[in-house]
Specification:
Strand order of the largest sheet of chain B: 1-2
Number of domains of chain B: 2
CATH architecture of the domain at 51-185 in chain A: 2-Layer Sandwich
Distance between the termini of chain A: 72 Å
Distance between the termini of chain B: 67 Å
Structural class of chain A: alpha+beta
CATH topology of the domain at 51-185 in chain A: Alpha-Beta Plaits
Largest interface: A-B, 19 and 13 residues
Radius of gyration of chain A: 22 Å
Number of strands of chain B: 2
CATH class of the domain at 51-185 in chain A: Alpha Beta
Oligomer: heterodimer
Shape of chain B: globular
Chain lengths: 211, 406
């Protein structure tokens, strides 16, 4: 037999909660009054958001159209087709380039296997995840939408909600400081420079080893 | 007033009287609809505060217009009628649910000066109450309407032509019918005390006098708290609100009786639910806490003080219902039935007889302490007998089960 007073104590507990600190933030999805910025939580360092297609510092696309990542994708959300580069006006430094490049975000599970599979670090995941589509065509990101702009920043699509600064730490840096289990890569920036960012520094706590 | 004094309009009814009545109806309708909007918002905000959340914050200041936005969304949604449903009854059920909810509000006294004028206000030379109607059946109307509301829920579940709504509506009708008995018996205690069914008379009765100058003469105190507690519990069950929300237990029945309802038909059920919550709080305030009666601090706008006291008291109970929801886990179905039939009904019946005995002893001039002693002794004996009967029945049942299952 439970103590009948426990019921009363239960009411006291919920009443006390009224005056305690709230754990959620005043997040309004960009719909608040102008001048009242949303409170957003600090994003995790290795958060997997939507992808970006990176370019080299000279503006060339990193993708070489190898189609490896389409093979590794467990959700089968990627479609990629390579094509031969035009010798006079190449799109990427190699022999081939990514001609068709599509990711279906209704299927993508953000596992990051594609990022690990990519041999040229062309595809990486940003920390942008706030996007809601009103039709299925919008959910399929094409190459034009995924490619970073001339400043090396991800493009903001009309249905995406992110503010200035949230596109930081999108790409190279993230992979460069997480060597895939091999001690030889510990602290080594194993990443080529990219448009708008250059070669990024290693993560704090990891020493840069002279090569 | 019209209903109360001249139901058949045998005497001439002036245009102004009709206009005043019409004005009161429209005003009450508007107020209670806004009240529902506020209540839904208030419930969501308080619940989220109690759960360390912020709650609705986008539509309007502090999310005040969230309910309006939800209502508009529901209005624009596709109107679905399931294939296997009984189309006529399916469409009728929401209205069976909402009309009683509106009608009950008619008997609630909303304001007026009960200190010196017994609630009479004067509009354009006509004496009237701040109350839509004061029918002679009074509080019985509330009980009748809550009975009719069962039909809305029951038919909605039955007409949906689907399993979960049917289960939900079976639960709902059993629960509402069971707890209506306890509800009625605790109201009977009030009627015994007031000697009248009219809600207006009840308020007048409670506004008078008081003990020691400052303790009000509320039925809450006069009837000794027990009917109040029973009414509050049975009322919560009648509203199908947590912890008695087995009717729409999400985890078991999807949405209960309104699973198959969408768009504005669902909105009507939702509206009825919150209308009932407000009305039930208002009835509790009226019959136990003296309704709009209270001290008039500034003369001149004396009727407005009644409205203020009424709203303050109402607010306490609206908060209480939300508090219940945040605190108490849902009953199991057998616990619900046990609680209703084996505790609430015998207790309210016993207390009713106790109050009756006290009243008679007062009238006849019997020795009060002796009467109390005898009644308590009889009550304890009856309670012991009831418990013995319940225990015997349970043992019998367990033995039968043992026999059945080896």
């Amino acid at each position: 037999m439970a103590d009948p007073l426990d019921y009363i104590r239960g009411f006291a507990v919920t009443f006390k909660k009224l005056f305690e600190e709230r754990l959620t933030l005043e997040y309004k999805g960009g719909k608040g009054k102008p001048g009242t910025p949303d409170e957003k939580r600090e994003k995790a360092l290795r958060l997997h958001g939507r992808h970006v297609l990176n370019r080299y510092e000279d503006g060339m696309e990193k993708c070489i159209g190898c189609e490896l990542y389409a093979g590794v994708c467990p959700a089968k959300c990627i479609s990629v087709r390579g094509a031969d580069n035009d010798h006079d006006n190449p799109t990427s430094p190699g022999e081939r380039f990514g001609y068709v490049y599509q990711i279906n975000y209704l299927r993508c599970i953000h596992c990051d296997l594609c990022v690990e599979a990519c041999p040229t670090q062309a595809i990486t995941e940003s920390k942008l995840f706030e996007f809601s589509f009103t039709n299925r065509n919008d959910a399929i990101y094409t190459k034009n939408e995924l490619l970073v702009d001339d400043q090396g920043k991800p493009q903001q699509l009309p249905w995406e909600d992110w503010r200035e600064g949230e596109d930081q730490h999108t790409s190279a840096w993230m992979r460069a400081t997480s060597p895939s289990g091999d001690h030889r890569y510990e602290g080594v920036v194993a990443w080529s420079g990219e448009l708008g960012q250059g070669v990024r520094q290693p993560e704090a706590g990891q020493s840069e080893v002279e090569q | 007033m019209i209903l109360a004094l001249d139901p058949l309009f045998l005497e001439k009814v002036g245009l102004s009287v009709v206009l005043i009545a019409l004005f009161k109806v429209v005003l009450a309708f508007a107020i209670i609809l806004v009240g529902v909007m506020f209540m839904v918002w208030f419930e969501r905000k308080v619940i989220s505060d109690m759960q360390h959340r912020i709650g609705p914050n986008i539509a309007g200041p502090w999310g005040l217009f969230q309910t309006l936005a939800d209502g508009l969304k529901l209005l624009m949604k596709e109107d679905l009628v399931p294939e296997h449903s009984n189309r006529v009854v399916f469409k009728l059920a929401p209205f069976l649910s909402i009309v009683p909810a509106f009608l009950t509000f008619a008997i609630i006294p909303l304001g007026g000066n009960f200190e010196s004028k017994s609630g009479v206000i004067n509009i354009f030379g006509h004496d009237t109450f701040l109350q839509i109607a004061d029918p002679p059946v009074g509080i019985l109307l509330a009980l009748a309407m809550s009975s009719i509301a069962v039909y809305g829920v029951m038919l909605a579940g039955w007409a949906s032509g689907s399993k979960y709504p049917l289960l939900g509506s079976v639960r709902a009708s059993a629960q509402m019918v069971s707890y209506e008995a306890a509800l009625g018996l605790s109201v009977a205690a009030i009627i015994l005390q007031t000697g009248s069914l009219s809600t207006h008379d009840m308020v007048v009765d409670q506004a008078a006098g008081g003990f020691a100058g400052f303790i009000p003469n509320w039925n809450l105190i006069v009837t000794g708290f027990v009917p109040f507690v029973i009414f509050l519990i049975a009322g919560t069950a009648e509203l199908n609100r947590p912890p008695f929300d087995l009717v729409e237990a999400e985890q078991e029945l999807v949405g209960g009786f309104h699973t198959e309802y969408s768009s504005f038909r669902f909105a009507i059920f939702f509206l009825a639910e919150y209308l009932n919550t407000i009305t039930m709080s208002a009835i509790i305030v009226t019959i136990f806490l003296g309704g709009p009666s209270g001290p008039v601090l500034i003369e001149g706008i004396d009727w407005a003080w009644g409205i203020l006291w009424f709203l303050v008291k109402l607010f306490v109970f609206l908060f209480t219902f939300v508090w219940f929801r945040a605190t108490l886990p849902r009953f199991r179905y057998d616990q619900l039935m046990d609680f209703g039939w084996k505790l609430l009904i015998p207790l309210s019946l016993g207390w009713f007889l106790f109050l009756g005995a006290l009243n008679i002893s007062n009238d006849r001039g019997w020795n009060a302490s002796l009467v109390v002693a005898v009644t308590v002794a009889v009550g304890v004996a009856a309670g012991a007998l009831l418990m013995a009967a319940v225990r015997t029945a349970r043992t019998e049942r367990l033995n039968q089960e043992v026999d059945l299952h080896g």
